[in-house]
Amino acid sequence: MAQATLRFYEELNDYLALPNRRRDIHMEFDPPCPVRHLVERFGVPHTEIELILIGGVSADLETPVQDGDRIAVYPMFESFDVTSLLRLRPVPLREPRFFADAQLGRLARYLRLLGFDTRYENDVGDAELVRLANADHRIVLSRDRRLLMRRAVSHGCHILQDKPLDQLAHVIRRCDLARSTRPFTRCMDCNGLLHRVAKGAVQHRLQPGTRAHYERFWQCTVCGKLYWQGSHYARLEKLVDAAIGGPRQP
């Protein structure tokens, strides 16, 4: 039986039982054993980890742990640069695209409002969700950490917050999305892109009040839903501004 010392840093401690938080954890294991197995033994999804150091050297999830190793596990970094070290993901996603699980329908709509390609299915199993997300190079958003601990999940974000707006703020901060938003460019219902349409082409679909007071319209290229800057638009603008940390530049 081999022994190793493991320590989790910052918010990763939230996954641990109280006696193990913010301290060295001495554990026994049967080699050969990849570091992934030791980390996930404590319920920490690998998708929440940015950097693992074994004896001060950057390691990936499949690096075997040796007797006497000291392992440090760090969460996603936000405030300082660690690009000179090996990240766990060899190729970052260039344009964030998401797949929200069945519990995150409202979050999916908010992300679409901000212009992010977000797929949402409430009737697929975990294995199929992961397969579809990987095939389309999407980040899995889930409240189920067991889902995110599946080995096949390479990009994921664990959603701990209960309120959809708090969930949105977490995803924006965690994935550094504030500068990538393109509000009001996607359909909140189906995720399709919106395009400008002439009022004359759609006026037969408008209610009399809408026809009388609005001139600019957009239509979803997938489901055909119409959008215009009605009374709800100011409320959505405030939501967008709050989500990205201030009013948008004109």
- Morphology call: elongated
Please compute the radius of gyration using only Cα atoms: 22 Å
Question: Total domains, how many?
Answer: 3
Contiguous low-pLDDT stretches (5 residues minimum) are: 78-83
Pattern of helices and strands: EEHEEEEHEHEHEHEHHEEH
Class derived from helix and strand content: alpha/beta
Count of DSSP strands: 12
What order do the strands of the largest sheet run in, or round the barrel if closed? Answer: 2-1-5-3-4
Q: Please outline the major beta sheet.
A: 5 strands, mixed
Set out the fold topology.
Elements: E1 2-8, E2 25-29, H1 35-40, E3 49-54, E4 57-59, E5 70-75, E6 98-100, H2 105-113, E7 118-120, H3 126-135, E8 139-142, H4 145-148, E9 156-158, H5 164-174, E10 194-197, H6 199-202, H7 208-213, E11 217-220, E12 226-227, H8 231-244
Parallel strand pairs: 1-5, 6-7, 6-8, 8-9
Antiparallel strand pairs: 1-2, 3-4, 3-5, 10-11, 11-12
Helix pairs in contact: 2-5
Structural features, described:
The structure is a single chain. The protein is an alpha/beta fold and 250 residues long. The protein folds into three domains: 2-75, Beta-grasp domain (Ubiquitin-like (UB roll), Roll), CATH 3.10.20.30; 98-180; 194-244, no CATH class. 26% of the residues lie in helices and 20% in strands. The protein has helices at residues 35-40, 105-113, 126-135, 145-148, 164-174, 199-202, 208-213, 231-244, and strands spanning 2-8, 25-29, 49-54, 57-59, 70-75, 98-100, 118-120, 139-142, 156-158, 194-197, 217-220, 226-227. It has a five-stranded mixed sheet with strand order 2-1-5-3-4. It has a four-stranded parallel sheet with strand order 7-6-8-9, sandwiched between helices. Strands 10-11-12 form a three-stranded antiparallel sheet. It is elongated and about 80 Å long. The relative contact order is 0.11. The model is unreliable at 78-83 (pLDDT under 50).
